[in-house]
Amino acid sequence: MRRTLALDVEAVADADMARRVIGEAHLTDEEALSRVAPPRRPGEVWRFPKPLYWRVVAVGVGVVSAAGEVEEIKCVEGGSEKDLLQSFWRGFGALARRGARIVTFNGRGFDLPVLVERALFHRVPTRSYLGERDFLHRYGDRHLDVMDAFSNFRAHTVLSQQELATLLRIPAKSGITGADVAGLWEKGDLEAIQRYCLTDVATLLLILARLGPDAGWLRHEEGGRLEASLRRRLKEAGAPVPDGITADD
């Protein structure tokens, strides 16, 4: 098994960036976001914006050794968005130099573009990713985007991570969805956001362990070792994820 970094990003729409791009500081948040992401259907105020219009509020990571052991699963520390991005890209660079691969769920469509573009805004170096062609190759093996690969690179309708987890009988419900993150951020409940983010990382690793052997991403014995190691790590660390994800199902 290759050394692996599983990651998940939680972000909120950034109206300040929209006003900056438009050049009209007087616009309300809804007005600014509707200008950069015009609604497409009745009832919408704005549609899903481009990556640069998302402020990163949490980054969850799970590091797996070449032996298939989960070394750590945590949310990256950082006060401001710039601090958070600096911490993430510093750790990413260290792992990339050791030959690690990335595992994400829709990471090519959202997580990595957001991490890169927001880092560029804050002048945080991303050469360890942008300068490594293997990470940018859609059909390469340095970045495994599970959603992309499982849909045969969008040849058929994609599943959400929750749908795929349910299909694989992984108990990963947290009571929170991505749609709840903005409200939690406004209330200052970063702990709930991080809990949700870590649940997604743990779910992603379990998906890799269950689906990986059939998909040829790792061997059967490696999948079993990874799953056992993840459950053990979560129980030992008391990581803030739902109890069901550590239970045998």
Summarize the structure.
The chain is of the alpha/beta class. 47% of the residues lie in helices and 14% in strands.
Task: Sum up the structure in keywords.
globular; single chain; alpha/beta; 5-stranded mixed β-sheet; 249 residues; Nucleotidyltransferase, domain 5
SSE layout and pairing:
Layout: E1 4-13, H1 15-22, H2 29-36, E2 54-64, E3 70-75, H3 81-97, E4 101-104, H4 107-121, H5 127-130, H6 133-136, E5 143-145, H7 146-150, H8 161-167, H9 181-186, H10 190-215, H11 220-237
Parallel strand pairs: 1-4, 4-5
Antiparallel strand pairs: 1-2, 2-3
Helix pairs in contact: 1-2, 10-11
Rounded mean pLDDT is 91
Q: Would you list the SSEs in sequence order as H and E?
A: EHHEEHEHHHEHHHHH
CATH topology name: Nucleotidyltransferase, domain 5
CATH architecture: 2-Layer Sandwich
Number of H/I helices: 11
Give the helix/strand class. alpha/beta
Helical proportion, percent range: 40-55%
CATH class equals: Alpha Beta
Describe the structure.
By secondary structure, the chain is α/β, with parallel strands linked by helices. It has one domain: Nucleotidyltransferase, domain 5, CATH 3.30.420. It has 11 helices and 5 strands, in the order E-H-H-E-E-H-E-H-H-H-E-H-H-H-H-H. It has helices at 15-22, 29-36, 81-97, 107-121, 127-130, 133-136, 146-150, 161-167, 181-186, 190-215, 220-237; strands at 4-13, 54-64, 70-75, 101-104, 143-145. Strands 3-2-1-4-5 form a 5-stranded mixed β-sheet, sandwiched between helices. Strand 2 and strand 3 form a beta hairpin. The chain is globular. The model has no long low-confidence stretch (mean pLDDT 91).
